[in-house]
Amino acid sequence: MSKPRRAKASAEEMDAMIRRIQDSAPPEEWPTYGMTDEQVIEHCRKVREELWQEKLARHASRS
Amino acid sequence: MRVVLDANEYVFAFGPSHKPDCLEALRLAAAHDLRICRSIVREVLRNLPPKAHGDFFDFLLAAIASDPEIDEDFAVPFELGASYEDQGFKPADALIAAYIESIGADVLVSENRHFLAKAARLPFAVHNAKSFVETFLPPV
Q1: Which of A29, B11, B71, B77 is the most buried (most CB within 10 A)?
Q2: Given phi > 0 = left and psi -120 to 50 = alpha, else beta, which region is B104?
Q3: A4-47, pLDDT tens digit by residue?
Q4: What is the CATH number of the domain that holds B31?
């Protein structure tokens, strides 16, 4: 299992990293651009299901 | 306190809406023992533009103090996942719930109210970002 590793980044460094992620691409390049909150939640559920199906397909192709 | 953030929390915080409650939940979770599994990482990456992937991993390295930073799905006991499926969870949701239980997390933060609605009793608390922040942010 996991063990403690090291000190984490400061709150300011964390904020800078979050901003970098947010600013990495124009809003319209984000897959959830233009979606309402409910649509984002539904989209995330679909992505979870898609990834699960992809995982099953990978396992099936190996066996 | 050990905390797991569902993929939708990262998507809301980083994505175009920059939802303030979710951003605050991210910061608060990072100040505690934040944990993440491979499945949630994959889900978040699927929802980020490729240009943001490197920065997301930098964020995880900075926010998570455990080693390794990402917990592998295969470490989740199969029987635990099966027990959630028996309760009516979809297999992918069952894996996440079993992961959270297997690492002894105290809290799951998710905006997906339907996700865990099927469970009669869970060994961890479930909050959305707003209630997580309201409950655990120390008063100033």
Answers
A1: B11
A2: left
A3: 556 778 888 888 989 999 999 999 999 999 999 999 999 999 99
A4: 3.40.50.1010
Length of chain B: 140
Query: What is the greatest pairwise CA distance in chain A?
Result: 48
**pTM score, whole prediction:** 0.91
A26 → chain B, closest CA residue: B16
pLDDT tens per residue across span B101-135: 999 999 999 998 776 666 778 899 999 999 999 99
Q: In angstroms, what separates the C-alpha of B50 from chain A's closest C-alpha?
A: 9
* Residue B116, domain extent: 2-136
Contact B56 A21 (CB under 8 A): yes
Question: Which residues does chain B have within 8 Å of residue A45's beta carbon, measured at their own beta carbons?
Answer: 112, 114-115
